């Protein structure tokens, strides 16, 4: 359990960290890279040592994308492809579990789809208990239903677990008015309201995730996880990334 004194001055005491599957991959965006996973794990360890309770939601796009099965000649039904994507998130979650535990963190993988040979089934009260005992909880298989993204799963779990914020980790510095990887003149937003995200059609998280956070005033912080130390900065409330909420951060 993290030292109680270390958590007294935390800006956020419990967070959902949303990682894409590609964040674990090599430069080609496929598979699982030990180097990339290890770098993220070290940042998570530093954040956890500050006393913050951390739950992680990881996507599965580095292993399987639902779009692979779209089109007139697709042999796999769309719902089936979504289930396959859920399994990809379990693979990533198990990889992250072992990576975190190899550097001394205690973890639990909890799946929305029961698979008790590999991980626990998600139960809200048990997940909270794990967090309060100082374990990093890795939330796999979305919410267990097809046609629901891992962005929406992150928002849903943030509400269920009473997280202070959803930390959306990306490979750019936050939310821009255009794709900064294609447009060098794209402008970074410091803060946005949920309505602005929707009205400007900004591709931050899917519309359902934004609507959930909006309805329950759950803030989102979009930041660049590739910059070492940014996860700790985000948890400490330092100026980093783009804040999305009903009002500007205090």
Word description of this protein:
The protein has one domain (about 5-245): Carbamate kinase (3-Layer(aba) Sandwich), CATH 3.40.1160.10. The two termini are about 30 Å apart. The chain contains seven helices and nine strands; from the N terminus they run βαβαββαβαββααβαβ. α1 (about 35-50) packs across α2. The longest helix has 25 residues, at about 80-100. The protein has a nine-stranded mixed β-sheet with strand order 4-3-5-2-1-6-8-9-7, sandwiched between helices. Residues about 1-5 have low confidence and may be disordered. It is globular, with a radius of gyration of 17 Å. Helices cover about 35% and strands about 15% of the residues. It is an alpha/beta fold. β1 (about 15-20), α1 (about 35-50) and β2 (about 55-60) form a beta-alpha-beta unit. InterPro entries: AceGlu_kinase-like_sf, Asp/Glu/Uridylate_kinase, Uridylate_kinase, Uridylate_kinase_bac. Its main location: cytoplasm.
């Amino acid at each position: 359990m993290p030292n109680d004194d270390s958590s007294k001055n935390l800006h956020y005491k419990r967070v959902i960290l949303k990682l894409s599957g590609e964040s674990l991959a090599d430069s080609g965006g496929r598979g699982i890279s030990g180097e990339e996973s290890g770098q993220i794990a070290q940042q998570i360890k530093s954040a956890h040592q500050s006393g913050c309770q951390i739950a992680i939601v990881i996507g599965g796009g580095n292993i399987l994308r639902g779009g692979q099965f779209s089109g007139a000649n697709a042999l796999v039904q769309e719902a089936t492809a979504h289930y396959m994507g859920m399994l990809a998130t379990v693979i990533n979650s198990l990889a992250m579990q072992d990576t975190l535990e190899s550097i001394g963190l205690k973890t639990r993988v909890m799946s929305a789809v029961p698979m008790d040979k590999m991980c626990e089934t998600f139960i809200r009260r048990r997940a909270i208990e794990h967090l309060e005992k100082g374990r990093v909880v890795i939330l796999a298989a979305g919410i267990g239903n097809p046609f629901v993204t891992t962005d929406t799963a992150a928002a849903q779990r943030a509400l269920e677990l009473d997280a202070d914020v959803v930390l959306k980790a990306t490979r750019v510095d936050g939310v821009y008015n255009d794709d900064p990887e294609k447009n060098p003149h794209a402008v970074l937003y410091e803060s946005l309201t949920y309505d602005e995200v929707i009205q400007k059609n900004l591709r931050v998280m899917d519309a359902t995730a934004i609507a959930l956070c909006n309805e329950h005033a759950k803030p989102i912080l979009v930041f660049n996880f590739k910059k070492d130390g940014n996860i700790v900065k985000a948890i400490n409330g330092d100026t980093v990334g783009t804040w999305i909420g009903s009002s500007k951060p205090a």
